[in-house]
Request: fold
Amino acid sequence: MSRLMAVRFAGVVVCAVFAAACCGCDPRPAPKAALRVTIAPADAVEAGAEWQIEYGEWRAAGATATELAPGTYTIRFRDLAQWTAPPARTLSLQGGKTTVYAAAYEPYAGTGGLSQAELDDLHAQAAANGWTFTMGFNSATDRPLSAITGDIDGKFPAEARKDMAAEKEEPDIAALPAAFDWRAQGGVTPVKHARDCAASWAFATNAVMESIIKVVDRETVDLSEQYLISTNTEGWTCSTGGNRAFGFYVGHDSQCDKIGAILEQDFPYQSADAEPDCPYNPQFRLRSWGYVDGEFPSETRIKQAIMTYGPVYVSVTADRAFQVYTGGIYNNHTDGATNHAAVLVGWDDNQGTAGVWILRNAWGNGWGEDDGYMRIEYGCSNVGRWAAYAYYTRQRAPVLTGFTLAGGQVVTESRTVAINPFWKGSRPKSYLASELPNFSDASWKTFNNAITFTLSPGNVTKMVYLKLRNDIGESNVMKDSIILDEPAGEGEGEGEGENPNEADFAGIRFIWCPPGSFYMGNRTETDAETPKHRVTLSQGFWLSKYEITQSQYTAIASPNPSAFPGAGLPVDSVSWQDVNAYLDALNARYPGYNFRLPTEAEWEYACRAGSSTAYSFGDSSASLAGYAWFSDNGAAQTHAVGKKKPNPWGFFDMHGNVEEWVQDWYAAYSSATQTDPLGPLAATLRIKRGGSWQATAAECTSARRRTGDPAVRSNTAGFRIARD
Reply:
């Protein structure tokens, strides 16, 4: 017989169903939604007006998108020459209904745009100079060049730039590919339009930060350029500023006495030098930033920075030919001062005379090719005269996605209830809980793994409000309710104790790893493990106590890929890509937990468990058989998890059984001290740790690293998972 349980989540009673049953719910699939968007006037439609849903395909005016899941969607419009596109709109779509949205373009009212005579003259110059790119009217040509370029502080001395080293050194990526493009890696956000404010410096700064947030956090965010323009303390404006703007996301207070980036929704773009309305709540912060060498860094150094950190902010000389670019390889080798900031997202050595950069602009998706991009030859138009990169390691304010009271119960007999919050972002440091929406009766309390709240007396339904906070900023507020039914004559119960350092999430047992520092690598093993270097993990994390078993894997994904079948055996024969597909499915089924692979540093920190020896239990391989399945005792196969001794923190099979995929791309170690290292943001090989049933004792040490193609499966490879 099926067992049904009603639980409450975010104020709504939902059904937790065990076996094939439904707790008062309709088992039929929810009806789909549809969206139709009309566009006026007809002249704008003739000029090419189009719309898209959530950065998807462009759709014609009047087109209907069908088979959409009910929910909230953002629609955007293509930028056109001589027209002002409608602003993005967020719409709520209902199942079984077609929502119709009417959008209107406005004729651009500005003056000083490109004339046909000027365009004809540029075509004559192209014929005379051998330019191979195409030119025409686009979303930037309805403004004078002087209105969309300006002083970008490019005269900051080259030696001063060279001295501004980042805390994280650029690793030596020996085998740079001939071509690389962050767009193909899903590492860019949509191109924006600066319109009548020439703050290319602000748009380039945020384009870089949005991209690395998307790569590291796997989330698309829209940051506010207006916040940088209006609150910087350097006097930068629409027409001047600011290749050091990353500093306001690292350690420089803004005019609002805050550090970090805020969301576009909190200070929308005004296309002008608007006054701020402090205070704001920053959501993201960079670990550090730096320049790529001094003036005119080499192509190799810029490429290394692009792969290590993500897209790179560069200076470029933008003239009238640059403004009218519509496609092809830009080869106008003009000289002069740099007057524009843009972003390099990749390169291709096989195009042009010597190779091309892939440049992202902020003149709208109607400029250039591929919705706002340019292919520009190396060295052309002073591109990369100076280049800057940013280093981000998940430093963000918490975003509260939900919470439960008393484990999701509808009714509680105790006034003291456990709070189980779900969040995205960096780990909270404190929490605020109250039965009042303005929190006037509450004070911030230290956040730990067992937070609680004491309900007010009285056996009625209680509404509890919660928000979280860390060093970057505060979360949003969410609420949940619970019915108090306290037995007469009984006070507050203490409840049963549970080890706060262990917990079950989604049916998987996890152990809490506190923040701390350790020495990573080894001085005496292979080159891949050297040099030994100090690493600090500033935030704690949860890591699964055991390797993910086949039963846990097949509960989410199918088929079972394992070469050695068995429900309690670790899943094997999974590629790094397979693992991330499993994680996507797991997070879709259990939203709010944000399961992920551990970083390489997190894995070694948990494996060492406070030790500095070759293995977590000491230096002698003679004791390894008590802790690991490896070549001496593995019998050429995997074994059930948890059958050997755990390490000092309680983790099983960190040595042997299956080698475990981690999140990082491979790069050689640096001797520099690092905080929350993530490895390069792109390379060719991923990393596996811990050794396997096939490995020798020397290959099972805490420091040993092995590389693997992220698309290739091996019967020695499995994984365990983490969450913040």
DSSP finds eleven helices and 40 strands in the chain.
